[in-house]
Write a structure and sequence with these properties.
two-stranded antiparallel sheet, 9 strands, alpha+beta, five-stranded antiparallel sheet
């Protein structure tokens, strides 16, 4: 089998070719062949090393938006994706509040957070890093589907139903359903807007998530480069019901992502999905 490093060298040589020599039919075929070999090798690596049917995944090329590898039944079908919706709820809030995000004190169970002891004083960045439900309950108190729909449309997400409101728009509950493939591509679009101040705060939260937040298992597993991570836990929609399913979106490496990996683990929290995502990225890295 052709190694990932060998295929990467082919792709690098094509990308480094002078502009005057690109776009010729022979070179287009080399580039396409290299991309196809890479996708086949990655798919084989993930299928062989992660055969568990409870694990679903989508791997996208950040630069081309193409799906490189996939094991996800009906990825275009809208499903609850939990806290993966939080960045887009935050942008919708910002649109109506001049992108000013107030601080908040999370008191844990007392203020509706998943962490009983709370997260203490949080801002948008730390709320993304720790997926703080208390912060997003506070942020979305007066948010309606009409407020969120323009942001959802901008990022190619399914629109929330007109009666969806408040915390449901941050993925707390099963009401706002979004297809996994659309959500993955929305995060790629988010990355392309990283120079906008509100988006920069969100991405900073995803970077913090990877080294000390809910996605910390990703950075613990990767050898180098780190990642940008968002986790979530949502209602299970499998025939074989579980208390919930864990989701993770990871973009790696952190400083200039090449891949987006989206993982779902049946019957586990988002932090468990983060560990699986980290293991997958490490296998690709090797």
């Amino acid at each position: 089998m052709v190694s990932i490093k060998q295929i990467g060298l082919v792709l690098t040589l094509v990308l480094l070719a002078p502009p005057s020599s690109r776009g010729r039919p022979d070179e287009d075929r080399v580039s396409a062949a290299g991309s196809s070999l890479f996708a086949q090798s990655v798919a084989q690596i993930l299928d062989q090393n992660f055969p568990d049917p409870d694990i679903s995944f989508l791997l996208l090329d950040r630069r081309t938006d193409q799906v490189l590898a996939s094991r996800w039944e009906q990825p275009n079908n809208p499903i609850p994706l939990g806290s993966l919706a939080k960045p887009f709820a935050a942008l919708a809030y910002g649109e109506a509040h001049d992108y000013q995000y107030p601080p908040h004190r999370c008191l844990g169970s007392e203020t509706g957070c998943w962490r009983p002891g709370g997260h203490g004083d949080v801002d948008l960045t730390s709320a993304i890093a720790f997926s703080c439900n208390s912060y997003f309950r506070f942020l979305t108190t007066d948010l309606t589907a009409a407020d969120v729909s323009p942001t959802a449309d901008q990022f190619g997400l399914e629109l929330p139903s007109v009666d969806t409101s408040g915390m449901e728009l941050a993925g707390l509950g099963p009401r706002w359903r979004i297809s996994p493939l659309r959500m993955a591509r929305a995060y790629l679009q988010l990355l392309g807007m990283r120079h906008q101040p509100a988006v920069a705060k969100i991405l900073a939260g995803m970077e913090q998530s990877a080294w000390q937040g809910t996605g910390a298992e990703v950075d613990r597993t990767l050898r180098s480069g780190g990642a940008l991570v968002k986790t979530g836990t949502a209602a299970c929609i499998h025939t074989r019901r579980a208390p919930g399913d864990g989701f993770t979106i990871a973009l790696a490496p952190a400083d200039d992502p090449r891949f987006l990996l989206m993982v779902r683990v049946h019957g586990a929290p988002g932090s468990h999905a983060a560990k699986t995502a980290g293991q997958m990225l490490r296998r690709i890295e090797e």
